Predict the structure.
Amino acid sequence: MSDPTLSDFGFKNNMAWGSGLPLKCFSIKISVNIIFDRVGKKDPITLASEIICDRLGYKDINIMLWSQHISFIMVGVLGLLSKLLKNK
């Protein structure tokens, strides 16, 4: 029995679901953000840094400065992990 994804219909079906569904989800997310007037003011790293520093009682840390460095480090870690896990 042959693989159904290798047929012409299977290829078109995979392409439709693979490109159509993310576009639909993206458009729904944009619509929700416009309707509820949600504007991203802080990235997740900054927000997490503020929460952690607030909970631990560190009030004198410049979070806006350090969150940029932490974000760059996180991007590097993600890239490194992606490269390492891709080789396995």
In short: The chain has two domains: 1-38, 40-88. The longest helix spans residues 8-35. The chain is about 75% helix and 0% strand.
